[in-house]
Every structure is written in C-alpha cells, then in structure tokens.
Design a protein that fits this description.
Elements: H1 2-55, H2 62-73, E1 77-82, E2 87-90, H3 100-110, E3 119-120, E4 123-131, E5 136-145, H4 147-197, H5 212-262, H6 266-296, E6 303-306, H7 307-324, E7 328-330, E8 339-342, H8 346-361, E9 367-375, E10 378-385, H9 392-396, H10 413-423, E11 427-432, E12 438-445, H11 465-470
Parallel strand pairs: 7-9
Antiparallel strand pairs: 1-2, 1-5, 3-4, 4-5, 6-8, 9-10, 10-12, 11-12
Helix pairs in contact: 1-2, 1-4, 4-5, 5-6, 6-10, 7-8, 8-10
C-alpha cells in the first residue's frame, strides 16, 4: 500500500509539473524570440532612418556610417541598398547581409512588401525600408547572430528542467513520507489482525500513529480484540464449568447404579443395566457437545503438521478397533511429505472422528481408505468407505449438530470435524464413493514453506482383507 500511495502521488505530481512547467517554458521561449526579433528590427530601423536622410535628402553619410559602426561593434552585419538594389554602404562583415536571401529580402522591401525574415546559418535577417514603405528610397538588411537567443532559450529550458526536477524530488520525499505515515499504521493493524485471527487473543495494535481515521480504526480494533478475548475466555470458562458440573454427577450416578446392580434380583438388575446404558449414552452425548463447543471456540495458532505421519499414527491407533469389527483400514505410503498449517492436535481429532464414524457405519468385510494429494495450492485429504453411504438430504445437514437422524452415535462427529476444519481455514464436503459408500473430502491449507510442492500424491497401501477378517 505504501508503494501504491507513493507511486500515485508521484505520477500525479509529475503530470502537474509537466502541465505547468512545459507550457510556461514554451510561452517564455516564444516571448524571448519575439523580443529578440523586435530588438533586431528596432536596430534595423535606426540604420534605415539614417540611410533615408542620405538617400532621400542627400545629406552627408556620416550619420549612416555612425549607425553602421554601432551595429558592427554590437556584432551585427548590416548593409544599405538604394532604390535600385545597389549596395551603398555596409559593415565590415557583409557576407551575411549580401547573400541570396538578403537580396531577396531587399527586392521584397523595395517592392513595398513586408517580408518574413529567415534564419541563415545561425543568423537572423531583418530588412526595413529607408523612407516610405510603398516608395522606399532604399533598404537596410541587418544580420544578427542567433547564439544569444539560443543561449537565452537554453537557459529558460534549463531553469524549467531544474524547477521540475526540484519539484519532483520534493514530491518524492513528501509522497514517501505521506505513504509511510498512512501505510505503516495500516500494515501494523493488518499484522495485528492476522495474529489475532491465528489465536493471539492478547494482541493489540498501536493507536498513536497515522491519520485520525487510522487511529480511530486502531482503537476500534483494540476494543474489538478485548471484547473477543473476554468473550472467548468466558465461553471457555463456561465449558470448563459445565464439563465439571455435568460429568461429576453422571459419574456418581453411574457408580450408584453399579452398586445397586451388584446385589439386585434378575429383573431389577436388567432394569438397572438399561439405566446404566442410558447413563453411558448421556455421558457420550455430554462429551460430544463439549467437544463441539470447544471446536466452535477454537482460535488455532497454525503449526506445521506432517499429514503422512499423523495419518499413519491414527490408522495404527484405530487398527485394533477396525480388526475387531472385521473392517479393513488402509494407510498411505511415506512419499514426499505434505505439510499443512493446522492447530496443534486438530488433525488428530479430525481423523479420529472421521475414522470412528466410518468404522461405525461400515459393515463387516468393508474397507476404509485414507488417501490424498497436494493440488491447487491445498492439501486434499480423503477418508473413503464402502458402507451404506448417505442420502442427498442427509449429506446437506450432516455437518449440523444432530444433523443425521440415522447416525448410530451421538450425531456430533461431523459437526466437530466441520468446526475444526473451517476454524483452520479449510473446507470439508461429502461425496459418494464410486461403487457405494461415503467419502469425506478435506481441503486444508498448506504450510507456507512447503507451498511450492505440487502434485504429490499418496499411494494407498494394499490391504489383505482376508487377513483382516481372519483376525
């Protein structure tokens, strides 16, 4: 942002300088040319007035000679012609005043016309009639070097360029300072917002820098961060209190039922066993609700998580359960590693819920496979099973609490998965497995240092399902 502001102000200032300095320099150049020409014509008229007295009134040529000497001392070349275009007098340097262009000018002046003076080899020519314009007694041609005019014009453009460069330099300094004044507080605020989103709830930003609007924004951010911190800590305290207040009575009630069932008659023992099952179900439900609440309040700080290692670990942990239910559970090969940015322990919790749901849903002889690949700048993890699958209506609400009324467990596993995945900046969706079953697809953010490894696929290891069934 700082660069954009600086470049924008610099471009705007450059345009304004060009629009202001260039037209001014052009105007001053044109004025200088006109002034130089007028001065040259005035000098020519002075010589023409003295020449008229000699040519028309037949007075001595002393005055004319005097004016020619004055022109020569000024560096000009002048020549006086009579009415028949014959040279009467001139300065020592007559070449510039007696050429073809000079002769052409003399002819036009004697014919009663006012010619446009040309520039000849760095000299400017001027011609004036001696006497009346329509019936001149002669003509005077004065050639003056254009070097002084060129020097003045160069000085005008040089000063204009210097002024433009100075203005541009001042604009650079001011634009950079202004851009930093505005951009640095916003960059600090952006970094603070990023750290707050990563879970640093005590993050605050500086409110003493930048324009008033940015300061107010920083103060509002700090207020929001403080309220968010208080709200999250309050929810966490409530979750802890509820966890203690619910689990303790349930545990005590379960122990009492165990004591009563130990010495009860057969009919009573059956009823007490049913009550114990309901207490166990209620405990699982409370645990699930607390897990969902914790997932909803999660503000993870991303860490580098090796997906292949976590997958292999969780598959190994769940293999005994899968073998007991005669379900095949496959792992992945240790190919080029894929590293994702997730909160500590979140991928383990996500996979535990997905594998638990799949093991519960897949019948004996079925299979569960975990595979994935790095694609599109994301890490894609899939948990596939060949169980009964889900209807389109059930998939639409599966990530809600108790979204699937046909779920065998508490109905909270996918809700926990969805909360944890989205809290970490990922996405989760459900698809049908080709041939029947359900596939859970997770798109997780890559760890930045490994973001350039694309197209790395995990290869599913073959599973001996006969051996699984035999166990």
């Amino acid at each position: 942002m700082t660069r954009r502001i600086a470049w924008t102000l610099l471009a705007l200032t450059s345009v304004l300088l060009v629009l202001a300095v260039v037209p001014l320099a052009v105007s001053m150049t044109a004025r200088e040319r006109v002034s130089y020409r007028d001065n040259q014509r005035a000098a020519t008229r002075v010589i023409a007035a003295a020449a008229e007295e000699h040519l028309s009134d037949h007075k001595p040529a002393a005055a004319m000679r005097k004016e020619l000497d004055t022109a020569a001392r000024a560096g000009d070349c002048a020549a006086v012609y009579d009415a028949s275009a014959r040279l009467v007098a001139s300065t020592p340097c007559t070449a510039a005043a007696r050429g073809e262009e000079a002769a052409e000018l003399v002819g036009k002046v004697l014919a009663g016309h006012e010619p446009e003076p040309p520039e000849n080899e760095g000299r400017l020519l001027a011609a004036e009639p001696a006497g009346e314009v329509r019936r001149p007694a002669g003509a005077v041609v004065l050639a003056r070097s254009a070097a002084p005019l060129d020097a003045r014009i160069a000085a005008i453009w040089g000063w204009s360029a210097a002024i433009g460069a100075a203005g541009l330099a001042a604009s650079v300094l001011l634009s950079v300072r202004l851009a930093r004044w505005v951009g640095r507080p916003l960059s600090t605020l952006d970094a603070s917002a990023r750290r707050l989103g990563e879970g640093a709830l005590d993050e605050r930003t500086d409110v003493g820098a930048g324009p008033p609007e940015v300061r107010r924004l920083a103060a509002t951010f700090n207020t929001m961060a403080a309220r968010t911190e208080a709200l999250v800590h309050g929810h966490r305290a409530v979750i802890a209190d509820v966890s203690h207040q619910l689990r303790t009575p349930l545990a005590a009630l379960r122990l009492r039922l165990d004591v009563l069932a130990a010495g009860a008659e057969e009919g009573t023992a059956t009823e007490l066993a049913a009550a114990q099952e309901e207490i166990a179900r209620l405990s699982r439900l409370v645990d699930g609700l607390l897990e969902v609440a914790r997932a909803e309040q999660a503000t993870p700080r991303p860490t580098a998580v090796r997906v292949d290692e976590v997958v292999a670990e969780r598959v190994a942990a769940w293999s005994p359960v899968a073998e007991e239910r005669e379900v095949g559970l496959s792992t992945v090969s240790a190919g080029p590693a894929v590293t994702v940015a997730l909160g500590a322990g979140h991928l383990e919790q996500i996979l535990d819920n997905l594998i638990a749901n799949a093991v519960e849903a897949v019948p004996a002889g079925g299979s569960i496979t975990l595979d994935g690949r790095e694609t599109g700048g994301r890490a894609r993890v899939r948990v596939r099973d060949d169980g009964p699958g889900m209807t389109a209506e059930a998939k639409a609400v599966a990530f809600h609490r108790f979204g699937n009324p046909e779920a065998r467990g508490s109905g909270l596993g996918l809700a926990i998965v969805h909360r944890l995945v989205t809290a970490n900046g990922g996405t989760a969706r459900l698809e049908d497995t080709p041939g029947g079953g359900l596939t859970v697809v997770l798109d997780l953010p890559l760890w930045p240092e490994r973001g350039n490894e694309r197209g790395v696929a995990w290869r599913s290891l073959p599973v001996d399902r006969t051996a699984d069934r035999s166990r």
